[in-house]
Structure formats: structure tokens, C-alpha cells
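Quick log. Single chain, no ligands specified.
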Amino acid sequence: MKNIVVILLSLPVLVSVGGLAKYQVQLNNFVEQGSGEIIAINKQSAIEKTEVYVIGGVYFETDSIKRHHLYEYLERISPSVILYESDSSTVRRIVKKTDYFVQLIDAFKGSNRVEKPVVLKYLKHHPNCILLPYEWELRSKYHHKHDLRKRSKEMLRSVIRLHLDSVLTKEQSTVIAEFLELNDRLIQIGMEH
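-> predicted structure:
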């Protein structure tokens, strides 16, 4: 009986360790792949000209948007600084690969995140690139504390309902209509094969 209890108590730990190992193997396989062909871009020195690119992406791969697409784009523009949409503690955990909770979720969810692996791969092949957080500090803790993921969906649904019920001002309604149109187009892009 004692052995059965020990096995049952050990099982979640073993499953977690297995999930983390699986995640690390998949992440390392992507990061270790060759950097691909670098496409030269005619650039002036940073003193003469600084270019800022804002790249929108998806959190997870879709049928038409894969990790390598974003990576190839980074190779083309060859950034010397990447601003990552997270607070400094999250960026540190990503770089050190100590974001274990996210790794466990990813290992068992079976979907491929895009941003983090692409950034880690780019940093591996371009070690002089600087990765900086671009978010207000403690954002993740604040979001978790106030359950903003759930509440933001509720808020957005409420605003859309106000729009559909013609309660908003013309300007507000225009903003929501443009948001909905853009969101529909992005969903279509993500679903295209």
C-alpha cells in the first residue's frame, strides 16, 4: 500500500518533469536550426538613420503563419534591439528558459508559440542583439490578481454590445467598427491555408 501511495504522489512530478523536458527539446530544436539565408538590406549607419519596425504577430502558429515566417522577417530587417512585450522579470525568465509554468502549459497544449522561440533563436544567431522588456512592470501579476484575461473579454463583449445597440457616439462606434473589421481580417489571415 505504501508503494502505491508513493507512486501516486510521484506521478504528477514525473509528468511535469516529462512535460518540461519535451518542451525544452522542441524549443532547443527550433533555436538550434540554422539562421537561414540572410537577406542584405541597404542600411546607413545608425547615427545617420534609425529605423523602427513594429511587428504584429500571433501567439501560436496557424496553418499559414509559422515561426519561420517571423524569423525570416527578423533576419531581413536585422534588428540590433528587440523590445519584447513583457515586463523585465518575464523577459529574464524567457532568456534563461526558467518560465516553467508556461513551458508546462505549452508542452501539454501541443501548440507552438511563435514570439519566444523566434526571439531566442534570433538572439542565439545574433548575440550582439539586445532584448529589452517593453511593458509596465508587474503587468503579469496585476493581470493575474485582477483576472484581466477573463474580465477584458467581458469588457470587450460589453463594448461591442453597446456598439450593436447604437448606444455609443459616432466616433466611438467608428473605432469599434474598424476594430471589428481589422480583427476579422486578421482571423482570416490566420485561417488561410
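Residues 51 and 79 are 9 Å apart (CA to CA).
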